[in-house]
Design a protein that fits this description.
53 residues; mainly alpha
């Protein structure tokens, strides 16, 4: 598993990884995107517990 973490770290240091990281950070700050994510998580939580006992 340490190999995967190392590869992820190397990717995030690359130009493509930095660009992707900045894109994700901008999306996370957008109120519309945050609302969509909050709604999606709430929907998954409500559906996820219905079949378990």
């Amino acid at each position: 598993m340490a190999g995967l973490v190392g590869k992820l770290g190397a990717f995030l240091k690359s130009p493509e990884g930095k660009r992707l990281s900045q894109q994700v950070q901008r999306a996370a700050k957008d109120p519309a995107t945050r609302r969509k994510l909050t709604d999606a998580v709430a929907q998954l939580r409500s559906k996820g517990g219905s079949g378990r006992r």
